[in-house]
Amino acid sequence: MSKIALAVSKETKEMPLVRKTFEVVADELLARIDQGLLSPGDRIPTIDHLAQEFGVGKSTIREALSQLKAKGLIEARQGEGTFIKKRPEDSLSNVPLTVASDPASLMQLLEARILIERGCVGIAARMRDEQDLQNFEEIIAHMQLAIDQEELSRHYDIAFHMMIAQATKNPYLEQIMQGMSEAMNLTIRDSRSLWLYRGASQTRDLFEEHRSIFEAIQAKNADLAQQRIVAHLDHVRQALLEQLQKESTHETKVTG
C-alpha cells in the first residue's frame, strides 16, 4: 500500500468525513515543516518527484501546494522552484480569532477583513511581481472551473485572499492573514452558501469580482484594487445582513 493510501486510511478512521487526497498530501507536507524536516529556505522537491513519492497525480500535488501557498508557508520563485518561506514569530498567527459561525459574529469578522484587506490589496498592487501574477492567474483559473463545486470554490476563495497578503511582501501582514484563515473559512463558507441560495448567477458574480480585483492588481492600480475589494466584501456583508434580517423575522414569528 502506498504512503498516501496509508495516510488516507489513517485520516478516515479518525474523521467522520472523507477528506480529499490533496488535503492529506498538504497535511503530510505541513507535518514535515512542523517537524523540521523541511526548514525555511529549503527547496521543495519537484511536482514529478512528489507525485511519484505519494503515488498520486500531478494535479493532486499542485492542489496540495496551492493550499500551502494560501497559508503563506511556501513560495514559488520564478526559474528556481518552490521554497519553504521564512516567517516572523509564530505568535502573530496565534491571534484569538475563533469565531462562531452565526451571522452576527461573521459580520464582525467581515468588518475586520474590510479594514485589513483594503490595506493589503493596495500594497499588493504596488509590490506584486510576475510570480505573484502567475499565482493569481492559477487561482483564478481554478476558481472558474470550480464555480459549481462549493468545497473547491471555498478553497480557492481563501487562496485568493491569502495570495493578496503574500503579494504585499510583508511577512507580518501574511501572518495576520494566516491567523485569520480559519475565521475566514467560516465567513466564506456561510456567505458563499447565501450567494448560492440566491442563484447560480450570483455565484458567477463572486468569481467576476475576484477576477476584477486581480485585474486591478495586475495593472498596479492600487486605488481601483481597494475600491473593488471593498465593494466585493460589502456585497458579502449585504448578504449576511439579509440573513440576519430573515432570522430576526423568523424568531419574532416563533416567539410572537
In short, what is this structure?
It contains 11 helices and 2 strands.
Which characteristics define this entry?
256 residues, mainly alpha, 3% strand, globular
Write the CATH homologous superfamily of the largest domain.
GntR ligand-binding domain-like
Total number of helical segments?
A: 11
Morphology call: globular
* Number of structural units classed as domains: 2
Strand-pairing-aware structural class: mainly alpha
Across the major sheet, the strand order is 1-2
On the 0 to 100 scale, the average pLDDT is 79
Strand content: under 5%
SS elements, strand count:
2
Per the CATH scheme, the topology name of the largest domain is: Four Helix Bundle (Hemerythrin (Met), subunit A)
Instruction: Label the CATH architecture of the largest domain.
Output: Up-down Bundle
Biggest sheet architecture = 2 strands, antiparallel
N-to-C order of helices and strands: HHHHEEHHHHHHH
Determine the fraction of residues in helical runs and give it as a percent range: over 70%
Q: Could you list the spans in which at least 5 consecutive residues all have pLDDT below 50?
A: 1-17, 89-98
Nearest-angstrom radius of gyration? 19 Å
**CA-CA gap between termini:** 60 Å
CATH class of the largest domain, please? Mainly Alpha
